[in-house]
Each structure stands twice: as structure tokens, then as C-alpha cells.
Amino acid sequence: MKIFEIKKAAIKKVFNEREIVTRPLFAMILFMLLVMWGGVLFTINTNLPNYGIAISPDNFISITEYVVYLIQLVILVPLHIGYMKYLMNIDKKDYEHTVRSVFEPYKYFNVIAPVVIITNVLTFMGSLLLIIPGIIFSILFAFTYPIIADGEKSIKQVFIKSKNLVRGYKWHLILFTLTFLPTVFLGLITLGLWFFIAYPYIMMCIVMYYQYLRDNPKK
User: Fold this and answer.
1) What is the C-alpha R_g of the chain?
2) Which of 90, 113, 142, 194 yields a CA-CA distance of 20 to 30 A from 150?
């Protein structure tokens, strides 16, 4: 399946005729909660002492900001994973399509938190050494969240499955990511308002792309 076929199918999935209002509205409410919590942590961060490492007079790495960033991710990522799970099961009648189901991933917080921390620390350290290692780590870890949403509860297997998924698809994944640049640009020029509409579409694209790679592995 081509990238644009996946994206076209994602639009149909999210904005179908039967529930053209409820699904996007549900995602908008969730996105607003994420933004509000991010704002709270940003306010906390700006009022904390800024500890860090001065590599040079013009280059300062803030440890305080990075720790707050990790805390933010650990708290918000379960919501993203919960929404991914919601979208994965959007056509299943026996699945509980409610706001409560989106908060379900907090039950396996002991899996999500280590995955978030390991993924971001390794990517950050790789970026400090050279840009390329950071990019490689970000590609290898690209599907850790959808894999958890799909039911994997082993931290080790989450990383193994993510690495195996992108085997033979690395450039394909980079191209897939670049196709969201217009969406990001629209979000910036509308001061973030476009993201309220685009969030369900972006998440559905990620879910469907993950499902495509999962069902079409390269050896």
C-alpha cells in the first residue's frame, strides 16, 4: 500500500459519514486536555531553577528542562496510546468506545514509563554525539507506542518489535513522516488551531501505517 493510499484511507476512517462529528470532537477534547496539561508543566518549568551543563559559552544543555520534558511525556503518552487503541478498535462493536477507554493505558504505566524514558534518553544521547545516531534511534523506536496500544506488555518485546517493523522500511518511514510537513505548517500559521482538527487524522495515519507494516513484514 502506498503512503498516500494509507492517508486517504485514514481520512475516510476518521471522518466517515456516520460519525463525522463525534469522532473528531472526541479527539479535539482529548487534544485540548493534552495542551492544557502541557501548559501546566511549561509554567512549572519556567519557575524552576535551571540546572544544566555548559558545553561552551553559547551552548547550554538544560537538565531541568529535559527532566520536566520527560515527566510531561510519561504523563501524556498513555493518553496518546489510549487514543491509538481507540482508533485501532474503531470498527469493533464489542469495544468500549468511551473516554474512559482512552485512560486504560495508565493501568500498565509500569511498561509505558520505562519505554518513554529509554526511548527519549537514547535518542537524546545519540543526538548529542552526532545527529545521525539520534535519527537512527528515532526510526528504530518509531512504533513503540502503537505496539503497546496493540497489546504488547513486555518492555523488551516492544523494542524488538519496533526494530523489526522498520526493517526494510526506513526510507519509507522517513518519507511518510515528511508528508506531515504541510499539516505542521498549517498548525503553525494558525497558532495551533489546525492541530485540533488534524489530530485524529494524524493519529489514524500512524495507526494504519503501523498496521500495514505489522501485516507486511520484510525479511
Assistant:
1) 18
2) 194
Is the Cα torsion angle 87, 89, 95, 100 positive or negative in sign?
negative
| Structure-derived torsion over alpha carbons of residues 177, 179, 182, 184, reported in degrees to the nearest 10 | -10
pLDDT per residue over 147-205, tens digit each? Answer: 999 989 999 999 999 999 988 888 888 888 888 888 888 878 887 777 777 778 888 88
- Closest of 199, 111, 194, 181 to residue 151, by C-alpha: 111
Residue 31: CB atoms within 10 Å: 20
Distance separating the N- and C-terminal Cα atoms of the chain: 17
On the CB side of 149, CA atoms within 13 Å amount to: 28
53, 60 in Cβ contact below 8 A?
A: yes
Assessment of whether the complete model's pTM goes beyond 0.85? no
Here the cell at position 39 is: 501548559
Q: Which of 160, 79, 162, 70 is nearest to 116 (CA)?
A: 70
Pairwise CA distance, residues 185 & 56, whole Å: 32
Between CA 66 and CA 72 the distance in angstroms is 10
3-state secondary structure of 195: helix
